[in-house]
## 1
Amino acid sequence: MGLTLAWRLFRRELQQGQLLLIILAITLAVLSVSGLARVSERLQVAINGQASKFIAADRIIDSPVKLDPAILDTAKDMGLKFVTNMQFNSMVYSGDKFQLVTVRAVESGYPLKGTIVLKSSELNSTEPEQSVKSSLEKGRTQALPASGEIWYESRLGGLLGYPKTLELGNSEFTLTEEISRLPDAGFNPFASSPVVLMQIDDVAKTGVIQPGSRVTYLYQFAGKEDVLSSFEKSVKPLLNNSQRWVDVQSGDSPIAGAVKRSERFLLLASLLGIALACAAIGIAASRYCQRHYDVVAMLKTFGASAKQIRFLFSLHLLLVTLVGIALGLVGGLLLDAGISQLLPPEIAAYSVPYTRPLILGISTGLISAFMFSAYPLLRLLSIPPLRVLQRQLEGLPFGMWLHLLLSLGAMALLGYLYSRSWALTLTVVAAVILLGVLLSVLGFAMIRLGHSVGMKTTNPMQLALAGLRRRARQNAVQLVGFSSALVLLLTIFALREDLLNEWQKQLPENAPNYFLVNIAPEDVQPLNDFMASKGIAATDIYPVIRGRLTQINGETLISNEQAEAGEKGRVGISRELNLTWRDAMPKNNELLEGEFNRAADEVSVESGVAERLGIGLGDKLTYVIDNQELTVKVTSIRAVHWETLQPNFFMIFTREALAPFAYTSMASFYLSSADTINVAAGEPQDRVILELIRLFPTVSVIDVGAMVAQLRQIIEQVSLSLTLVLALVLLASSLVLIAQTEAGMATRQRELAVLRTFGASGWLLRSATGLEFALLGGIAGVLAVIVAEFALYLLKTQVFELNVYMHWPWWVIAPLSGALLVAFLGFWRCRNLLNQSCSALLKAEA
């Protein structure tokens, strides 16, 4: 009988539309998780896939010695693709000319990701930019130098006069192709030696590699993400301290910061969308249970047992949940299919399994429906039979702590299941707790300001304030919902804009695409004159001096190798540093502590190296430069944005401190991508670079234009993902607003019936209702700004590492937008009640 009654109740209320809101809330929760999970995973895989072209593989093991063959056997058994490369420095000769180069010896299959862009392929294309872009997007394996051949970087040809052959060690090689860009060339303007590419099998016959030679072995791997993760878990424990496991997010590469932040944003936005959908479920469940108070009282009056009633409504809730889950899963699949049509082909081509989104969607529907409905259902089941005679009775008031505990538990569980990050999950939960406390206290206090206003008035504003006072507790809860939606919208919108603005600052339209290094002091002025004659605006010139940090506060530093050998002491930096001086702090640096250099014996230290070495303000640092000691005092700590395509330094001195030492300089400039660099001069871009190399043979020219183009492509994909996720969170926020507006309709209907009975006009009721909702929206907007600013402070400082600033326009825009939005939703929902006559309202109430 219980099953039949539950089905009849479910079918009747479904036909009458009373279950629409709760089913819609569950549907949106499941759709948000299944759809967002698949969309965001696809975007993350695509972003990482495109970004992996920066390292020419998915993962790399960087080692100074040959890797244990067992590790490569493991990779082969797991179905991973891999190639072995060698990198070392050597001198090459052509006639009476010689040059230090970086040799990249690669085997067939390199690169696993991305492509080698050659000058010949660019020259054969009528659209050079498009040729480069298409080459970057193909990501296919291509031909490599044949045995006895070398491909060379453009500047090597200029330095040696474009010979046909050159000598490397004991062998002579033919120069066959000019390299425009290697996919894993990286960005290091201090690496001034040109790159040559050769077959790894040709290394032995050169005789260059001898015992004790400094060689880096690069083992590059590519494959499915889950297989790579398993490989990483099995291999990383086998690596020693001199071997590194590298992925696209390792280090301070320009793309690493963008990928990390985009993934955090996608996870955060998805978590907030889930939280909003779950809040809508809780509101809808409360409304559903309140509508059935009388039904439960009647059933108990007619002798139904508590067990029968519990079975009836539990089964009813289960049917509602299953319908919501089914619709949500279908909606998630449609959402993914629809968004896939809007994505660029290079992103849509990436696919992810359906298994995890489906499991997450079903789990979300069941967990959210149970946890967020448990408290309202307990109150429903405790309704006494006496409510048939006294309708103000609402059963035993279970403590709100139970509701909060279940809701936060559900949110934490769903958050971790989705993000698999306790740090991000607990950050969101903590923000929700703080949000709830502040909004409840502030909202209730502000509503109580209308306590002295009476109800007997013909003034719409006073009637609206009286309505706020009478429904103080209910309005306080509604304020939490309204403000939560606005807070999350403001937070997501602000983070999206800040991320995009920061990336645009890193890569402005005229970002430098050429770097000049090894500029001798006597070449600075002639070089400036050459740039001016060609209409090229160069950036600041940075002096560069090599030095080693040897002591901190008189304590001698040891290297990592010495520490591993058992020597005691403070570990320092096991290499020489690139030092510079500046009269003012660089624009892409941020002062964290102290004051930037003012006296000759002062130095400014980057925050990361300061933390690693335990350096603080006032410490004395001793350097050895050109066999001379220099001691300076730390007077400032700087944050450096390493992801920018700008020269960055760990240590910045004053001009006076480094004046006794020899130095070279570096600069950067931008060349237009058009066919000519200077319309008046009509000189081709390549000719300008070649002339620069000819006039300044000791200056190294580094072309990073292709990398800038590739980085822009990654940023465009990230921007698209941020916009899509923002739209989905906006949908979830709208549902919460609708659910909160729906929550108080029964009480409002009774009040309208009473006011109509006492002669209130339709104009007065419509005006008062609109003003009441507008006041709620305005208050919610003010509170949302306060909490959003606080939440953004936590997120920017603890998660995203962004600059913190106040959003002053919000203090006007948010209250006005909140007032208009909530007033519109409230008035739209109440329009039928406001248009009904007094008799119709009384009949509906009866």
## 2
Amino acid sequence: MTTATADLVRGHDASVLDNPAWHALIGPHASFAIGGDLVRRYPEDVAPFVAVRTWRDPSVWGSLQELVGPGVEIGISDAQAVPPEGWETLASGGGVQLVESDRLQPRPDEEASELGADDVAEMIALVERNQPGPFRPRTYELGRYVGIRRAGRLVAMAGERLHPQGWTEISAVATDVEHRRQGLASRLVLDVAFHIQRRGDRALLHAAETNTGAITAYERLGFVLRKRTNFAAVRTPR
């Protein structure tokens, strides 16, 4: 599936997924947005994402620097221009964007418990042990997060992150090493997807293209490739 053939997925406009962070910050997540008409970001303790309306505006790099300040590391995705002189590229890579298909069969999980403010320390510790992607002290405010415990300890989790209109991203999918190959991550993904669909949205996922194991697992559940993405970590001029 590509953007050329998938503008509509089960009646939902998929064009917003070409710039999901921006459409989240001007839509359902507008209450979190810091910035203006060209560049917006989440509060640092919520998420590290910075979004731009368009990379074709020549003032976008200056607006980015003005928004975040000098000498600050930020993550950008699908940039259509090389950072100008004075900017430092720290890392870059490729990724994939997956969306649900008709094969996905979400279902609630009886063992999944909802996570909130009282669980933040455990959630951050689980993320640090497994490195599924960035997670901040207030990330849980972006949507519904669930987890599974063993002997009282949080060993697996998943939840909702970016929320462009009509869609919700499943993120922070993490399972401790000693509890893998038990289907916990798949169960939580299906639980999160069930509640996404129940409120009328559709589910999407992002993954690094090198994370072939996770991509294969998501495809087995019923997600399909929509497009390939690129991302980079850059530092603003000092």
## 3
Amino acid sequence: MQHEFAAVVEQDGEWVVAYAPEVPGANGQGRTRDEALASLSEAIALILADRREDGLRGVPDDAEQTTVRVAA
């Protein structure tokens, strides 16, 4: 599944930093824009996986679990 998020990219001295305003806590950095965006992408994936795991903890065994697609 593919998602798109807004990314803000800024130069900070010798580093490029990036963050996703829609995903609190998602930050990335690198020496180049591409490295910072790749780092941000990994951070978003980890945060979403963690939130999914937390959200599904305690779901009753007989509850239906499925997915939903969101078109922006």
